[in-house]
Design a protein that fits this description.
- This protein is of the alpha/beta class.
- 38% of the residues lie in helices and 21% in strands.
- It folds into 2 domains: 265 residues, 3-Layer(aba) Sandwich (Aldehyde Dehydrogenase, Chain A, domain 1); 185 residues, Aldehyde Dehydrogenase, Chain A, domain 2 (3-Layer(aba) Sandwich), CATH 3.40.309.
- Bound molecules: 2-aminohexanedioic acid.
């Protein structure tokens, strides 16, 4: 067997082994015989060292002019472009999604880096009139401090970039903890930052489990802000930990996203959108479409069109350009998905296709699963309410737009939604009434662009958004500044 490469933590500008002396392996979910890399099983001590380094680097980084910080991030963008293909190949090997999608994942980080580099020359505040003469009022953005970025495995470079890059342009220093299924992509991102000339200690990376790295990191008294993407269950634990120390936290969590297909929709277009939303990334997106709510007049036709396309999907190793869907990320996820399929059958939903693990030719050594369709799903069933995070789609019938919206909104989550209709009035009514952070018209629930805010309502988030200018509000504190140049004591709000 080929020698396995060992990857170290990045602390204080140096690549260092963990104080535990222990490592863990990251395996290829399409072929578990392939170990993609060996990573540090880090400890509280490693976390302390990383936070100490990030704290020490903060004063200087804060004072580095923001346009200069932006220029370093521009170089990060250029290097991501340069290494895009090899980053995508490694990402498919460690996470499983198909190569076209991992290229897209890297592209999303490129977009974020170019966009944010320009932000270094904006970081807009406000100037507003004063109530008094000879007085100038403005607001400016200040960095929050030391940021802990706890990132998921489903977008191994894109999501870390959503946190890291805006945090840096705003003048924060960062400690990153990548998901243990995908540390290699974050390692590459950190290497690129180093090559781009990011000063030592401004960014640190510590790999390891949630228990031994994530918890000590979010509990560390010198961490000012925790930016987390992951499950709603873990997010609520993060919130409870942060609340105890009154530190800031920004959470991006689950979704149970739905597409409405109205009776006037272009059904071919809708089928393609639903297919892409449900089975892209093997359903492992927070934005994945896991419910399609179809007007009863077109239900039969739409279902048979969708069923045919679903059965035709080519499942295989993501490195094969012909594969349309890769494996699930690990066996635990696969068992979770399998269990939900059993739940669906027990609840009385009709399994149209899929529902089982795949182990045919070329698939037996990976975590492959069949693209799965359930019909006759009622909105209250668990498969229509709980986030599955796999290639399982529930078809639900509706009578009208109002009925469809009511079904979409009957969810504890509120990330993404979509409607297929040719009627502009229905489209605008949907925009107004769908209770989600993102709504698409005649497009799937996935594929958000980085220049708009990303996030959701209800159990999906805690009121913050990533990406776009909204991200700046997470990574900065507002300072209101009043300059009184009257030379006298002027009192706001007080009458003479
Ligand atoms: C996620 O699923 O956590 O909008 C992020 C999309 C991608 C990002 C998804 N641009 O589907």
């Amino acid at each position: 067997m080929a020698r396995v490469k060992v990857f170290k933590n990045y602390i204080n500008g140096k690549w260092q082994a963990s104080s535990s002396g222990e490592t863990f392996d990251s395996v290829n979910p399409a072929n578990t015989r392939e170990i993609v890399g060996r990573f540090q099983q880090s400890t509280r001590k490693d976390v302390n060292d990383a936070v100490t380094a990030a704290t020490a680097a903060l004063p200087k980084w804060k004072k580095t002019p923001a346009p200069h910080r932006g220029e370093i991030l521009f170089r990060v963008a250029e290097l991501l472009v340069k290494y895009k293909e090899s980053l995508a190949q490694d990402m498919t090997r460690e996470m499983g999604k198909i190569i076209k999608e991992t290229r897209g994942d890297v592209q999303e980080a490129i977009d974020m880096a170019y966009y944010t580099a320009g932000e270094g020359r904006r970081l807009l505040g406000e100037t507003v009139p004063s109530e008094l003469n000879n007085k100038f009022n403005m607001s400016v953005r200040m960095p929050v401090g030391v940021v802990a970025a706890i990132t998921p495995w489903n977008f191994p470079i894109a999501i870390p970039s959503w946190k890291l890059i805006p945090a840096l342009v705003c003048g924060n220093t960062v400690v990153m903890k990548p998901a243990s299924d995908t540390p290699l992509s974050v390692y590459h991102l950190v290497k690129i930052c180093e090559e781009a000339g990011l000063p030592p200690s401004v960014l640190n990376m510590v790999t390891g489990s949630g228990e031994s790295v994530g918890t000590p990191l979010m509990d560390h008294s010198k961490i000012d802000l925790v930016s987390f993407t992951g499950s709603t269950d873990t997010g609520s634990i993060v919130a409870a930990h942060c609340a105890k120390q009154m530190k800031q936290y920004s959470l991006e969590m689950g979704g149970k996203n739905a597409i409405i297909v109205m009776d006037d929709a272009d059904l071919n277009l809708a089928v393609e959108g639903v297919l892409w939303g449900a089975f892209g990334t093997t359903g492992q997106r927070c934005t994945a479409c896991s419910r399609v709510i179809v007007h009863k007049k077109v239900l039969k036709k739409f279902t048979s069109m969708l069923l045919k396309r679903t059965k035709d999907l080519r499942v295989g190793d993501g490195l094969n350009e012909k594969s349309e869907m890769g494996p699930l990320v690990n066996e635990a996820q696969r068992q979770k998905v399998l269990n939900y399929c059993k739940i669906g059958v027990d609840e009385g939903a009709k399994l149209l296709t899929g529902g089982s693990c795949l182990s045919g030719k070329g698939l037996s050594k990976g975590f492959f699963f069949e693209p799965t369709l359930f019909a006759n799903v009622s909105p209250k069933m668990r498969i229509a309410q709980e986030e599955i995070f796999g290639p399982v789609l529930s078809i639900i019938s509706c009578r009208s737009l109002d009925h469809a919206v009511q079904i979409v909104n009957d969810s504890k989550y509120g990330l993404s939604s979509a409607i297929y209709t040719r009627d502009v009035n229905r489209a605008f009514k949907a925009i107004e009434t769908l209770d989600t952070g993102i709504t698409y018209i005649n497009s799937s629930t996935i594929g958000a662009e980085i220049q708009l805010p990303f996030g959701g309502t209800k159990g999906t988030g805690n009121g913050h958004r990533e990406a776009g200018t909204a991200a700046l509000d997470v990574f900065t504190e507002w300072k209101a500044v009043y300059v009184d140049y009257s030379g006298t004591l002027q009192k706001a709000q007080i009458e003479d």
